[in-house]
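Residues pack. One example:


***
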Amino acid sequence: MRYRTVASYAPAAAALLVLAMPTGTAQAATGTFFYHEQPGDLERSLTNPADNTCFNLGNGGGRISNQTSRVANVYFQSNCNGGIFGFFNPGDNGTLPEYHSVRFTEFPP
């Protein structure tokens, strides 16, 4: 008899566990990140980029404007390799001679 009582609570316990678990949805920066691609100094942009995702920027170089809600960690190499070359807080503008990828995070490195 006792086994049946415990077994009858199992579905309810499983349902509560599912409701209590976080959904795991990715956060995204709000706003736009502007950068320039060379040659030609062509302005490009990323709008509402996902957090902790590496974005390759091609042959980037020149002005950067981070108008997102997250920190933009800019890398000299593609695929966010080789260490952070510079970082731009929300609202920051600046210039780097060359860059190839960026990753957005909630906090600076």
